[in-house]
Automatic annotation (TrEMBL):
Residue span, EAL domain: 64-315
Alphabetized SUPFAM superfamilies for the sequence: EAL domain-like
Gene3D superfamilies attached to this UniProt entry: EAL domain
SMART domains tied to this protein: EAL (SM00052)
PANTHER family, per database record: CYCLIC DI-GMP PHOSPHODIESTERASE PDEF, OXYGEN SENSOR PROTEIN DOSP
Pfam families assigned: EAL
GO terms, molecular function: cyclic-guanylate-specific phosphodiesterase activity
Annotated protein name in UniProt: EAL domain-containing protein
Gene source species: Cyanobacterium aponinum 0216
Amino acid sequence: MFYECSDLNHFLQDINYYYQEYNLQKKTRFFQYINMAKFSSFLSSLETEKDQNKKCHVFSMKFYESMEKALSKALVENQFELYYQPFICFNTRKIVAVEALIRWNHPHWGLISPDKFIPIAEKSGLIFPLGEWIIREACSDIQEFLSYPLKLAINISPHQLQDTFFLRNMIKILQETKFYPQNLSLEITEGIFLENSTNVIKLMVKLKKMGISLALDDFGTGYAGLEYLNDFPFDVIKLDKSFIHNIARKSRQKSIVNSMVTLAKTLNLTVHVEGIENNDDLNWIISEGINQGQGYFFCPPLSINQLKSFLKIWVYL
């Protein structure tokens, strides 16, 4: 077993319990669930609009326009929230980093996950002010933990790296929040390989010279090939959770992950994993020489206040 600690298990259960209770006790939660169901079906119509008739296409465009307005309003009214999921070092059993995860706390739809609204933000250009808000807010939050050295991982849209002001804004935020660039990791999806590679690579090199580390997020789900991994200056590849789920019982999946780990080692890249949900998977991951990861087996995403409590408990395990 990786650990046996009833206190930790009880703590995690309490986090989930109170989080669920908080949501269920909201006065309008029942109606929010109904609206959220409608919201999801609307997004599905957006994703399949090519297969719909003209009437549905017009409806989708109107919905997109309304969603764009809602996102703009959300930025002004501070409807976005950040949650933090810890990274665990398997050798030391210490929390070494946290990943900032954005949620949209809509007044009628409730909490909305980023996969539902980030594509709209990217298409509309709102990803630029939203992305800047995420970086500033996360750096401000984690800067409080000076007595507990934590690395901060932030997800960056490939679109943001096309922004000519990205580097300038990054430097400004780090200076204003007094956050050390050496403690920052930017996680970028494989969509980066479809962008203007020459300019993006130059920007990534500048970020690395500042001390910021770069991680290729959701590795294995997109466009990454040997030529891309050679050209782009990544430090880490992060295996997508779809490869990790119940991997201890799936021989084909083991072979795929083993090949990915071998490739990473050949290119001098560190491997992290996400989506660890049970002890059997964890033990197999450790046997492959992977030393760092995250997942609900350890801890769900936490609010900043929950993270503070979690860190206090974890220190004594």
